[in-house]
Model the fold of this input.
Amino acid sequence: MSTAQPEIQTAKSTFRERTFLSPLEPFIPKSIVCLREGYGRAFFTRDVLAGLTVGVIALPLSMALAIASGVGPERGLYTAIVAGFLISLLGGSRVQVGGPTGAFVIIVAGIVTKHGYDGLAIATIMAGVILIVMGLARFGGMIKFIPYPVTTGFTSGIAVLIFSSQIPDLFGLKFAHAVPADFIPKWIAYFRAAGTVNLYSLDVGIGGLLIMLLVRRYSPKLPGALIAVVIASLFVAALSLDKTRGVETIGTRFGGIPRMLPRPSLPIPLHNWNDATIALGKARALIPEATTIAILAAIESLLCAVVADGMIGGRHKSNCELVAQGIANIGSILFGGIPATGAIARTAAGVKAGARTPLSGMVHAVTLLLFMLLLAPLASRIPLAALASVLVLVAWNMSEMDHFRTLMRAPRSDIAVLLTTFGLTVLADLSVAVGIGMVLAAMLFMKRMSEVTNVASRRQEFDESNTPLNDEGDPGKVDLPAVPEHVELYEINGPFFFGVADRLQDTLRGLERPPKVFILRMRRVPAIDATGIHALEEFFIKCHRQGTRLLLAGVHAQPMMAMARYGLTDRIGEENLFGNIDEAMDEARKTVGAQPLPRPSRIEPEVAREART
Done:
């Protein structure tokens, strides 16, 4: 039996063991995990205080983000209360705080403009289902493969769009017609309305921004946004600027905030078959928007969970978090909210305030609920210019200016991905930007992977790089005289993916006559994909037709397992699989009738030799 056969059996048994592992453990929420570990009074006190702190911080942000999204401020509070509670209760992070975030502002505003709140509700419910499916399919680990230039590009682009959307409220502009949704026409409309600037609104907005900057500079632990909003509200109320100088407030535009949560209901009319048909048609049209919401929620929540892990030294459950995000977004819509995800700034504030378990996030949601019950009438006095200043600061924080500048010194391909994603986010559409950015990044990755993988014969390259394999000092090097006539020895160096699979298919064509034995050495192939397996199968079929015996040597565990599941090892035959090049060479010499060479005193699989050296 060849030395590769134990590896085949190990790969098959490992696959069976993985299949029968308990499927529930990765989806047990951290709230239950924390109770299992033991929950004492010290944790309770710290979590409650942290939850109160984050609730105070989230109060103005939730309303400001909802207004910027094109809906009433109460919907931001509904989202922070319902989705925030569910994310903490069911999520896979110990301290993540959920609610409305700046990442959703532009996509939500676009959906509301085109399809109304009903369309947003349909898209968010669809996104929730997508998130649940992603979690159950264990896609949590896949989010880390989204390239950094893509996330930086669309995050910076969103920051520019958020800033742009706050200009009317910050300057108190008046428009004769509806403001265009596109970036450049929108700014043209702003300049045309420059003569309608309300200096009192501008003073309130700049004053709020200065207060937040001063609080951040001298007392960073205090809730700067809330302090700015309270002072601005008192200033406007004391001078009656909302009545005499035209400074808009929540009350003058939206009529105030309800004092309790609405009853849960589906905000989509489904009274008859015609309603269901209309809803289904909208759902089909909103598939791109729903997918964008799901991807943004997944990225933002998992990045937030990673940040939280770094701050408390924990480890989140990514798939559990995705399921919780999906449930929370559906729950938010049932109570009249908007899309939600993990909020990095609020999570960091909670950790700094002492949060250590999901109870802090639940207390944050309860704090906002108490505000609605007790203080909702006072919210009608909040000036919109003050909330605009809050979002201007949020946009600056989201812009990641330092990271953007750093990436401009990266390789040109990464700069191209960054600028493409940023430009499409600002000038086109967020869903288009993320999709094209991912496609461009994937194509560049394929190109790079193809450049690091080659197929070589006796140190002579058959790909465009024409660079010989460098095996000087390699203990597994094969001397050329040891390869008998009618035997060809090739080696694949690097991952065998679809970007390089065509090179193997062209190999036999480059030979003057088909050999009797073809040895394919794979000791330096750490991974193989379906295209690589298919190319290997096609190569085996071609060898079989030409009367050439194909031998594989030094196959790693991942390629061996993948080929075993595909059924390729059975087709090639275990008698043609060898863990060591010495055994494969001996078998080749026997096949062509050459004299066997002296065997090494100790033969080990090449994978083990590579690891040892």
Q: What stands out?
A: Residues 14-21, 458-470 have pLDDT under 50 and may be disordered. The CA atoms of residues 223 and 274 lie 49 Å apart. The first strand starts at residue 98 and ends at 99. The beta strands are 98-99, 341-342, 454-457, 460-461, 487-493, 517-524, 549-553, 577-578.
